[in-house]
Amino acid sequence: MFCPSEKIVIEAAINEQSPRSANPNVPITAEECAADALAAAAAGAAIVHFHARDPESGVLLSPGTETYATAMRAIRAERPDLLVYPTYTGGEVAAERFAFLAELADDPSVRLGAATIDPGGLIFSFVDEATGAIRGDGIFGVTLDHFRYFLELATAKGIQYSVVVREPGHVRITVAAHRQGWMTGTILFKLNLADHGLWGLPPSAAAVDAYLGIVPDDIPHTYMAYTYGPSHWDMARLAIERGAHVRVGLGDNPVEADGSRPTNAELVARVVDLAAAAGREPATPDEARAILGVSP
């Protein structure tokens, strides 16, 4: 059962691994991430996602717990309602892999309220449109044991969770987990489509239909457009039209198709404008929790 919403949940992915050389507006330090998160929230984002990165090199910190905590404390001081979540890294032992999430959730000055997971696996790679060269050859994924551990941890800590979908098996795994009672309520599928990605289906309405068509009618679900490449605005418009939700940000697309280099707040504001044209308003963080079946 697809659950459309009158209000739109907007997520801002403010940095990911995007280099500042691509866009000088990409935040790197904890202080920059906090300021950018607050600006995105003021523009209409209910959820903010960022990666803890080394302030000098920009390299991902693993797990980067203190950097996350520093940024989240600063955000919480002004917007305690905002849903903010980190990335996660690899590891063979689930308890060790996700220990930093528990630490952030248990810290009263942070109180982590959101997280996401990618169930299953794939080879995360891209093709260069101009040369045909392939870049990226890493196996990316989460075993079923780790998926279940993450869901149990999120439930125990009251963390709003979502599931990233990069290929059809991710949907099937999630549906099976829901059937087993590992998760309850409305599933938020983040449909990660990419113009030049070598996984899953390329961005299109047909791709959205194919992924969501796997979900049985009795499973409550919605989706969030999460697109790499120039198709990201088309996919955002589609999600808005269908009563679904949208993720934008410099972490996913640091440079626009026309070569412009916006800020994260500007990208969020554009989604707000597109939604307004369709008669939808941005959800507040508390409204986002309610839409996704999680109490404030």
According to CATH, the fold-level topology is TIM Barrel
Count the DSSP helices.
10
Overall morphology: globular
CATH architecture: Alpha-Beta Barrel
Query: CATH homologous superfamily, by name?
Result: Aldolase class I
Walk me through this protein's architecture:
Strand 5 and strand 6 (134-142) form a beta hairpin. Helix 1 (30-43) runs parallel beside helix 2 (65-78) and helix 1 packs parallel to helix 9. This protein has one domain: Aldolase class I (TIM Barrel, Alpha-Beta Barrel), CATH 3.20.20. The mean pLDDT is 95. The two termini are 24 Å apart. Helices cover 35% and strands 19% of the residues. The strands form 2 sheets. The chain has an 8-stranded parallel β-sheet with strand order 3-2-1-10-9-8-7-4. It is globular. It is an alpha/beta fold.
Task: Give the arrangement of secondary structure elements.
Layout (H helix, E strand, L loop, with lengths): L9 E4 L16 H14 L3 E3 L15 H14 L4 E3 L8 H4 L1 H8 L7 E4 L2 E8 L6 E9 L1 H14 L2 E6 L2 H12 L7 E8 L10 H8 L8 E8 L3 H10 L3 E4 L15 H14 L7 H7 L5
Parallel strand pairs: 1-2, 1-10, 2-3, 4-7, 7-8, 8-9, 9-10
Antiparallel strand pairs: 5-6
Helix pairs in contact: 1-2, 1-9
Attribute tags:
296 residues; alpha/beta; TIM Barrel; eight-stranded parallel β-sheet; two-stranded antiparallel ribbon; 10 helices
